[in-house]
Every structure is written in C-alpha cells, then in structure tokens.
Amino acid sequence: MSFLKKLRGGEKAEHYSDITLWVVLLFLLGFGMLMIYSASSYTAFNEYGNAAYYLQRQGIAAVLGLVAMVVVSYIPYHFWEKFALLGYFLSVVLILLVKTPLGVESHGARRWLKTGIPGFNLQPAEVSKVAMILFLAVLVCKMGSSVRRLKGFLVMLGAPLPIALMIWKITENLSSALIVMAISMVMIFVASPDYKKFIFLGLGVITAAVGLVLLIQNTTLLDGFRSERIRVWLDPESDVEDTGFQTIQALYAIGSGGIWGKGLGESMQKLSFLPESQNDMIFSIICEELGLFGAAAIIFLFVVLIWRMVIIANNAPDLFGAMLVVGVIGHIAVQAVLNIAVVTNTIPNTGISLPFISYGGSSVIFLLIEVGFVLSVARSIEFRD
C-alpha cells in the first residue's frame, strides 16, 4: 500500500479516507437495527406494548455513538495520550460505584450505573475496554524496547489485571473481564516480536482450561453457576429445562435455518422460546432467518472491517497510533469470535454481545468511539498526488 505512505516532494498532501471501512461499519449498524427489530418485536410488544421498543432505544444509542465517533475522528489522536492514566483510574471508580445506590441491577446482575438519562444506563465494563486500549497504547510507547524483555512483558500483562479482576468480582461479569485481558494480549503480542513467551503462556492456559473442565466433569468439588455452565456445555441436553435451555434453543434456531434461512422476520425461536434473542443470541436468529449464507456474509463483513483497520495500523504515522488501532482490532475481533463461539456451543455460555449488531446502548456507543480513534489515525496518514 505504498500510495498511503507520506511521499517527499512538492505535491499537495491529502488525508487518507477509508470508504470501505465506512460502508461496512454503517451496513453492520443498519443490519443490526433490522435484526434487533426482527428478534425483539414479539417480546417488546408483549412486555411494553410497543414492537419497536428495543429498536428505538438502540437507534438513539447508535446516533449518539455515530456523533461521538465523528467528533473523536476529527480530534488528533495524540490528544488522548494525556488522559490514559486518568481513564485507567476512572474505570476503577466507575466499577466501584456499581456497589453504591447508583448501581442498577438487571437479570440478576449488578453491572450498570444510573446516568439520569431515561432509558440509558452506563456499563463500566465498556468504559474499561476503551480505557485499557488507550492506557496500553501509551504504556507500549513509554516502555519502548523494554517491552520485549520478560520484565516488560510481565508489566504489560499485569497492567490490565486489576481492572479485569474488578470487573469479574465486583460486577460479576467474567465475559467482559476476559475480553479486557484478551485485548491486552493482542496488543502485547503485536508489541513484542518474541513469540516464544506467548506459546508457553498459551499452552499453560489451554492446559489449565482442560484440567478445569475435566475436574468439573468428573467431580462435584466445584459448585456455582459457572461450573454448571461448563457441564451444560459438555452435554446441553443434560438440563434442557434450565441451564441448557438457552443453548438448546439457539442450536435449534441455527439448525432450522438451513442454507438460505426461513426468511427475514420468520424466526420461530424468537417467539419467547430463545431468551435474549435480541442480545447475546442474535446470531442464532440471523442463522434461522437468513441461513448459513446470511451468517457467512456477516462473518465476511467483520473480516473486511478488521482487514481495513489492519491497513490503517500498518500505515499509522507512529507506534502510538498503530497500537491504538491494534487495540480496537483486538476488541472487535475477540468479541465477535467469542459471541459466535458461544451461540454455536463451541465454548461455554457466557454473556458476550455481537459487536454493532446485538442490543446494548453502552456497547455500541463505546465501540463507535473506538472506531473514532481508528478514523483519527487514518486521517493522520498522508499521501500525495
């Protein structure tokens, strides 16, 4: 992509603008709105007397997110460097506030904060993801070549750990904690060219995960809903009336869609059979209504979106800009892969939304802010006629 590089000479410099990224992003947002309405209209009408209840709320969040994205894209990305440490500690404060009267409980979990805006609550975990991307991008630049040594590697690995533990233990949101750590691992992986550490770390994590699964499967030493989720993951039909119900219904939706699907709006599982059909399980409704073809098309669009961001990262003017984009790539890629893996029962069920498509105001707003960072880096790339 030599045409993206800044050339020397008297030609007039122009800022790089990635039209493909814009088109894919807006399509994913628009498609998400369509699927949220399709997946939630029956439930929304029964519960609120308004079939477009979830669509309207998501639409407001998407508009706010797009405005924030455009504003952030026009702010030079180096402006945010000075707020990296502040963002880190702000995440800590917001997570702690969940345990105060400002905290909001929903679906048996206390993970949100009151904002004073009707119909909109703030999820501190989403703020933490953005803050961690910014903080680690600055930390990589500050550490320089020392990030390649074992001490630097451990510092980078330890930086997100307190935030991830707080998200897990205070807000009881293990999925977001794992995403924070996964974002960090992607950024560390790119920043450090010595991949041996990651091979050993990966083998250790896989060994520990397999050992935990075997322990839960063969003993009754571990209790709690997470161990129960692992048991259900291994055998969904063992508890079809309770913990395995959502997984079984999602698999029914995927299987019944076939190659071409039943048709948009024709899902049966969304008719009060599949819990959270507009949220974590929306990919199964996509499979049911649009079939394997529709599911593959959405996966392809995510690949294109990430590919365009990789191009921007490769041509960023400096390390900070590149790492900022890498963090956003890690967030979107990891969250999309984990959501699809959960829906297809490839990994144990946990609450992870599909980026830009699942219902969730905080999620879509902060994801779009992250894309604003990417666009800001893209605007700093110059080429000449």
Blueprint (SSEs and pairs):
Blueprint: E1 13-15, H1 19-48, H2 53-73, H3 84-97, E2 103-106, E3 109-114, E4 121-122, H4 124-143, H5 150-158, H6 161-170, H7 174-191, H8 196-218, H9 225-234, H10 245-257, H11 282-314, H12 319-343, H13 361-380, E5 382-384
Helix pairs in contact: 1-2, 1-11, 2-13, 3-4, 3-6, 4-7, 4-12, 6-7, 7-12, 10-11, 11-12, 12-13
Biggest sheet: strands, sense, closure? 3 strands, antiparallel
By DSSP (H or I, 4+ residues per run), the number of helices equals: 13
Q: Helix amount, in percent?
A: 55-70%
Number of beta strands: 5
Straight-line N-to-C gap: 14 Å
Explain what you see:
- With 385 residues, the protein is mostly helical.
- It has one domain.
- Helix content is 64%, strand content 5%.
- The protein contains 13 helices and five strands.
- It has helices spanning 19-48, 53-73, 84-97, 124-143, 150-158, 161-170, 174-191, 196-218, 225-234, 245-257, 282-314, 319-343, 361-380, and strands at 13-15, 103-106, 109-114, 121-122, 382-384.
- The strands form two sheets. A three-stranded antiparallel beta sheet has the order 2-3-4.
